[in-house]
Amino acid sequence: DGLRLAGTLDDLPRGLLARADLHLLKSDFSRAQDDLNEASSIAVRGEMGLHEADCHLGYARLHVAQGEKEKARESWAKAKEMIERMGYGRRKKDVEEIGRQLEEMAGE
User: Fold this and answer.
1) How does DSSP assign 26-81, residue by residue?
2) Which pLDDT score, from 0 to 100, does residue 3 have?
3) Which tens digits make up the pLDDT trace of 37-96?
4) What residues have CB less than 8 Å from 29, skipping those under 6 apart?
5) Long-range CB contacts (within 8 A, 24+) of 86-89
6) Which pLDDT value is given to residue 85?
7) What is the pTM of this model?
8) Which of 49, 45, 53 is nearest to 80 (CA)?
């Protein structure tokens, strides 16, 4: 809420993504989804490609946690493509980690 009051739209997606991660850790999937949706909307509207890629990673994590293999794979693939295209190397480990989780899900 403080980020909203500050009026700095650049920081709001980052705060929403962090809060989505917290909700995910608490298995509060609905609230995580809401925060991801809002962050994604801001990122797309504001042409914030890095935040948009982070949103797709967040969606992939959420879908993995919910056992939704296909949705997780779609979000992961979109994030991976964006990250590679933009050279967003900071998220390479996240892409690899989610990729391993998807392989484990496929092997179940």
Assistant:
1) TT-HHHHHHHHHHHHHHHHHTT-HHHHHHHHHHHHHHHHHTT-HHHHHHHHHHHHH
2) 57
3) 999 999 999 999 999 999 999 999 999 999 999 999 999 999 999 999 999 999 999 999
4) 23, 62, 65, 66
5) 86/49, 86/50, 86/53, 88/50, 88/53
6) 97
7) 0.92
8) 53
CA 42 to chain centre: 13
Report how far apart the first and last C-alpha atoms of the chain are (Å, whole number). 41
Distance CA 56, CA 51 (A): 9
For residue 101 the two structure tokens come to: 């989780």
Quickly tell me which residue has 């009051």 as its tokens. Answer: 5
Structure tokens belonging to residue 87:
């050279």
The whole-number average pLDDT for the span 22-27 is: 98
